[in-house]
Design goal:
It is a single chain. This protein is an alpha/beta fold. Strand 4 and strand 5 form a beta hairpin. Helix 7 packs parallel to helix 8. The longest helix is centred in the middle third of the chain and has 21 residues. The mean pLDDT is 96. The structure holds zinc ion. The site of zinc ion has 6 residues, from loops.
Amino acid sequence: MNKARTILIKNGIVATLGDANKVLYGHAVLCESKFIKKISPQKTFRGKYDKVIDATGQVVLPGFINTHMHFYSTMVRGLGKAAPSANFQQVLENLWWRLDKKLTLEDCYYSALLPLIDAVKHGTTTLIDHHASPFAVTGSLDVIAKAVKQTGLRASLCYELSDRDGAAIAHEGIDENVAFIKRCQKENDDQLRALFGLHASFTIGDKTMERAAEAGHALKTGFHVHTAEAKSDQDYNIKNFGMRVVERLHRHGILGPMTIAAHCVHVNDREMELLSGTGTAVAHNPQSNMNNAVGVADIIKMTKKGVLVGLGTDAMTVNMLEELRAALWAQHLSHDNPSCGFMEALSTLAFNNAKIANRYWNGKLGAIKEGNLADIVLIDYHPPTPFDQNTFLGHLCFGLSQSPVDTTIASGKILME
Ligand SMILES: [Zn+2]
């Protein structure tokens, strides 16, 4: 890890993203310690710098953000489903719930370290994770945090509480969330954040949900919860609780601007309005949803209703540009329209993930902007057509996504060069 205090990035095309969203030519970016110190015309930089990066033939972008991830799931890559699964419930029972029961604390550490290293290679510098290891709950978030610290990236962690393994493990899940949230609040380390993790409405009874809500509210934290991922989640909640998933979460006070509802594939208009009205963020995970055959979330309608929709990968990848492309294709296919959803899909990664992450990182992420944390990615790219702020998103989806990441910087440290 390079520990240069000042890094000057010159000769690249700078795509700032953020509110300003400019494409700048002839500009250089100066990083000083953890922050972006200055962005201005290249000729104005005449000082001595610890490190100068020549970004000729490259686009300079803010580091990518993943708003829904499961580090531990990457442990079974290549294994396939352990048994044929006819629906989402069987995918959970045959694969994920068999895996997570086996995880030890050591497995949790390595299963985080591997995708984090992969994230560096793909320019993803911030990840919002959702962790499960029911027979190694206590201390699991600390060992994952150790891997996050070692790789130099930043992550928000939570433990996915559920009733599926009995009351004792559910209690442990609450305690693990509480302990890690308290740790993060005390340390205020900008590499680490915490949310209160809930598996899903169909694996959490009212008693546990109440206790979790109470503990979360006492700590003034948001929640991270799988929400109406499959239609079976809605069926279960209607049958057992007499209400739909989002309504139930709302009744328990789980929704709000600090909460992330992952998936929201099967939400109706009223539920979209509840998400929008409470400011709850949605993490859209198109590749996972298609792989599990649960459907495609209508992010066009959600956006129209004012829901903030970000992009996660649900552990399918840490390559956010791959997920971005899938998001666009999925809207085209599900709406039977090759011209719909471009801004809605592209905005998830380009703008909305930063808006979501900035709720936890105090507005310092997701843009090449003076004063922001220096999370910067350089991608090799020779645009074959005009490249400016009006064409940037098209280049991002169809061109930049096909180019290798050359350099990844997080908090002003060069993690890959
Ligand atoms: Zn998930």
